[in-house]
Amino acid sequence: MSRILDLGVISLSMSLSFLLARFVTISFGFVLISFAASTKHYEVGNVYSYDYVVKLEMNEPAGLSDDQAPPPGSTVGYKIITKVEVKPVWQSETGGSILEILLVKPHLQIKSARSPEPEGFRDHSSNLDHAKIHPFFIHWKDGQVQETFSVKSDDVSLVNVKKGIANILQISATDEKERTETTPAGKCFIKYDITDAFHLTKTIKKGSKCDTTGLDYAFRTNNNPVLGSELESEVFSKVTMSRDSGVVEDVQVSEMHVVRVTAKKEVGATIHGSQTFKLSDTSTSSNTFKGSSVDAVVKAIEKLTGLNLVRDSLSPKWEKSPYCESATCKTTSTLSQSLAPENMATTKMASAFLQMVSKFREAKAQEIQQLLKPKSSIFPQILDVCAAAGTFETHQAVMKTLNFHLEDDITLPERYLLGLALSPSPPPEVLQDLFKLTKRSVPSEKLQESLILTTAAIAHTISEKNRITRLPQSRLFLEIEEYLVNALSSCDGETASQCSQLYLRSLKNLKSKSTVPTLFDVLTTNDQKSAIVAMKSLHAMPDSYIDPKYRPLLIKIVLQLGKKYDSSVRTLALDLILRNHLTKLELREVVSFLLDKVSDKQHAEVATFMWNRVAEFAEMNPSLGIYFSEAIKELNLQTYHHLSPRGLSTAFNRYFTSTRSGNSSFSNAIEMSGKILKRSLFDVFVRSENNAVQLLSLGIFADGLASFASDDNEPLSPEEEEVDATAGMELTLMEVQTRPLVFFVGKGELMGLVWSGAGSERTSAIQGNVLLQDDKKVIPLFNGLVAEVNILGGLSFDLAGQVQISLWHRTANSLVENKAGLVLQSVVRADTSFVKSRVDYTIATEAALHFTSDINFYQGVIMCLKLTQPEFKIRQNIHKTERIPGSKHKLRKAKYKTIPVPGLTYALNKKNSELCGVMYKDKEEL
C-alpha cells in the first residue's frame, strides 16, 4: 500500500513539475510577446520628447596587474546634452513605421576643474550652439532600424549622434535570447535578458567583436600579430518600457573599449562611452506623410519639405583627420634637420622619421619630389621615409630620382629597396613596378639580387595581407612564384651554384608553401652550398608548411644516414624536427646518436653544437623538455662525463626582458670547425602569447681558415685544405633576407685586408629607418561616435663592426655593435566637428648591444666571447588633450616617467667563462 502511495506522490509531483514548467514557459513567452507588442506603440500623431545625454571619456589603459601598475590618471572627454523629439510620421501594418528624430537645443559640456564636482563637466560654447539642426528619419520595423535618411547637407558628426539615438530605439520583436543586430558599432552579437514585460538588458560580451566588413573605414596592420594592436570591447544597455504607452521610457547604456599595443600592453587608450535617454513628455502633432511604401513616403517628405535625403545604414561616417592640425606642428624643413646622419640610431631620428612618414602619406607627388635631393646628406633617410610611407605616389617620385642602371653606384637604390622590403604596408602597384624591373634586369649583379629579394619579400607581405583580410591570392603573386622557380631550374654552367643560391634566398623571402617540395629537391643534389641555402629557406618557413612526409628525410640528414651533408645542413635540419613536434622515440634516437659522436674528436664540434641545441629547445618547450629528461635517464647519461661540453661549439638563449605583455630574447649559436668559427647566428625575438617575430638574425659564416689557427704540428684534414678561405655576413631583418655581404674570397683577399688594416676602424655595415608597428583602425562606437587608432613604431638602427688582426701576436679581436633608437607612438582620438579629444602615449629609448670576440691562436686556440648591454633609459610620455574647434579652449594633461635599465654582461656558457678566465687570468678586471 505504501508503495502505491509513493508512486502516487511521485506521479503527482511530476504532474505539478510539468504544469509549473509549462507555466514558466507560457509566462516567459508572454513577456516576450509583451515586449514585441510594446515596441509597436510609437503612434502617428504623437511626439515623444526625451532628455538625452551622450558622454565620452578617454584615458590611458589600466595596468595589467592591479597590484603593480599605477592607476590611470584623470580623463579627458565631453558630454552632448540635448532634447530629442521622436515623431512617427508614417505607419503601416506590413511596412513598419517612419520615425522622425529631431535634436532640440544641443549643447556641449567639457571636463573642467571649475566644475562643482571633481573631474566634472561644465557648459562651454561650441559649433553646436549655432549649428543648423536638420531632421533625421529612420525606417523602423519589428523593433529594428532598417534604414536611415539624413539631410545631405547635415553635419556628419550630428548625423552620427542621431544614429546613436536611433540605435537606442532598437529592441528585438522576436523571442530570441541572442541575436545579431546591425548597430552603429557594426553587426554585433547581442544577448537579451528580459526581467519582465517592462525591463530588459542588452549585452555585447567582452571579447565579442562587431563585424564592420564592407564599411569604408581605414584599416592597416602588421602581418605579424606581435607587432599589431588589440581591441577589447564591452557594451551593456538597460531598457525600461513605459507602462502607459509601451514606448521606450528610460535607457542607460555603458560601453568600454580598450586599445593596447600587443607587444607593450600598457601602451594604448581606453574609450568609455555612456548614453542616458529618458522620456520627459508626450504631445500631439498633425505633421504626418502619406504613401503606399517607404520609398513613396521618403519622396513625399522631400517634396513637401524641400530636403534632399540620403539613404544610409546605422553605420556612422568616418571623417579623416589631418595628421597634425595645431599651429605647433613641426614643418618638413624642421623635421629634416633631425634626419642628419649624426642622429642615426637615436630617438631623435626615429621620432622625426615617424612624423615624416605621416606627412608623406598625405603629401602630393610634387611636394615629395621637391624633397628628393640626391646630393643632400639626408637623402638616404628620405628614401627610408618614402619606402615606409607605402604610397605609389612616393614610389613614383623616388623611381624618377634614382638610377638603377649604374653598375657601381648602387648604395642608394639598395637603401630604398631595403626600406621597401621591410615596409609593412606596400601597395600592389609598387610590386608590379619592381617585378617589371626585375624581369628587364639591371647591369649590377648585386643590385639585381637585391631587386629580386625585395620583390619576393613584398609579394609575401601583400599575400599575407590578402590572407588576413580574406581576399583571394593575387595573380601577380603566382606569376612571381612561377618566375622564381623557373629561374632556379634554369641555373646552369659555371655560375649554376651562385645562381641557385640567389633564387633559393628569394624563395626564403617569398615563403610560399608550394615551393617547399622544390627546396627539398635541392637537398638531394651534389651542390653543398646550394643545399645549405635551401635548408636555410626551409628553416624560415612556417612550421605548418613542413609536411610530416619529410620527417624521415630530416632524421636521416641529422643522423648522417646515406648522403653526406654539410654540418650546417644537419644542424638546421635538427632545428626543423625540434620545432615540429618531435616524438619521444625520435628524440631518443637523436640523443643516442649524439652520445656516440660527442666523444669522437672528428665530430665533437657538430655533436656538441647539436647537443646544446636540443637542450635549448627543451628549455623553451615543456613537453620536449620532459622527453629530453626521460631520454637522458633511460640512456644513463646523468653524469658530468656525458653532460659536460666537449667542443667550443655552443647554442643557448637568454631573455632581454620578460613582462606580462610578452618577452624579448636572443638566441646565440656558434658552430666551430678546426678550432675556428664556421658559422655563428645571433637571433633576436619578440614573443607575445602564442605569436613570435624575429626582429633580427645576424649570421657570420667562414670556411677554409683553420690553417691560421692550427698548431704547427697539427695536420689539416683534406676538406680543410681544399676549401678556399671565405668569410661573410648574412642579415635578416624582420624575417626578410638581405643580400649577403662577402668579406673576402681566397687567402689573397684575406691577406690584403689584414695588411691594409681594413676594418680596424668602426665601420657601419648597414643602417636605416624602418616601421616596426604600422597599425590604423577605426572604431565605430555604439553611441554613433567614431574613434580612430593610429599606432606607429619607428626603429632607427646602425649595425657596425671592426676587426683587428695581428699575425705577429697571432691574435684577433672583433666587435659587432648594434645601436638603435626606438620610438613607439599610440594616438587614439575621437573627433567631431565641435570637439576633439585624444590620448597620445609615447615610449622612446636608445639601446645598444655589443658582441666582442677575442681569439688567441699563439699556442692552440683560446677564444673569449662577451655580450654586453650598456645601461639605458626608457621614457614614457602620456598626453591627453581636448580642443574645441573655433575656440581658444585647449585642455592638456600630461604624465612623464623615466625607467632606468642597468647595464649588464650576459652569461653565455660555462666553457666560454673558463676560456675567458684563462685568457685574462693576469687582468684584475676579469
Structural notes for this entry:
With 926 residues, the chain is α+β, with helices and mostly antiparallel strands. The chain has a domain at 550-653. It is 34% helix and 34% strand. The protein is built from 25 helices and 29 strands. The strands form 3 sheets. Strands 1, 2, 3, 4, 5, 6, 7, 8, 9, 11, 12, 13 and 14 form a 13-stranded antiparallel β-sheet that branches. Strands 10, 22, 23, 24, 25, 26, 27, 28 and 29 form a 9-stranded antiparallel β-sheet that branches. Strands 15, 16, 17, 18, 19, 20 and 21 form a 7-stranded antiparallel β-sheet that branches. It is elongated, with a radius of gyration of 34 Å. The model is unreliable at 1-40 and 715-719 (pLDDT under 50). It is found in: Endoplasmic reticulum. One of its GO terms (molecular function) is phospholipid transporter activity. Its main location: endoplasmic reticulum. This is Microsomal triglyceride transfer protein large subunit.
What are the defining features of this structure?
926 residues, disordered N terminus, 9-stranded antiparallel sheet, elongated, alpha+beta, 13-stranded antiparallel sheet, 34% strand
Helix/strand/pairing class, anyone?
alpha+beta
- The fraction of residues in strands falls at 25-35%
Shape: elongated
Q: Alpha-carbon distance between the termini?
A: 98 Å
Number of helices in the DSSP assignment: 25
Query: Which consecutive residue ranges, at least 5 long each, have pLDDT under 50?
Result: 1-40, 715-719
Largest sheet: 13 strands, antiparallel
Tell me the total number of β-strands.
29
How much helix, percentage-wise, in residues? Answer: 25-40%
Mean pLDDT: 86
Q: Measured on Cα atoms, how large is the radius of gyration?
A: 34 Å
